[in-house]
Amino acid sequence: MAGNERMNYEIKKDKAESSMSTKNFLIGTLIGAAVGSLTALLLAPKSGKELRVDLNNQAYQLRDKTDHIRESVSIKGNELTSTVKDKTTAISKKVSEQSVGLVKKVKGLTSEIEMDSTANPVDELFEQNKHTKSDIQKKLEETKRAFDETESKFNTK
Prior knowledge:
Number of helices: 3
Helix content: over 70%
Radius of gyration: 46 Å
Order of helices and strands: HHH
Number of strands: 0
């Protein structure tokens, strides 16, 4: 079990590092593009007015790219949040079901132990004897009645 947990941990760690390196790559790409664009504009032989227009255009393009990246990051974050919530709910439900099953097993074992401890063989013999005593009493009463009937027949003759 510990081996599986370790392997899962390593996989999650690799994914986190991979997403971190992707993030760093994107940030580096954006910064490099901005610096490269700025350098190209500043070194290009253009007039001040043309340079300002080009800088303005590049700023708008950079803002659009940033907005696009922000939106995609927001969407991915929402998807990740939804996935985490679903998995957490599923795990908590599974743990709850297993704990209920475990409690039932423990209660079943406890009741079996209680039944075994209350089922004293001596008590069982007394219970059997109670039934036997009542049967014997009934037979004695029947015999007494029969004896009384027979006695009354002889006395009346």
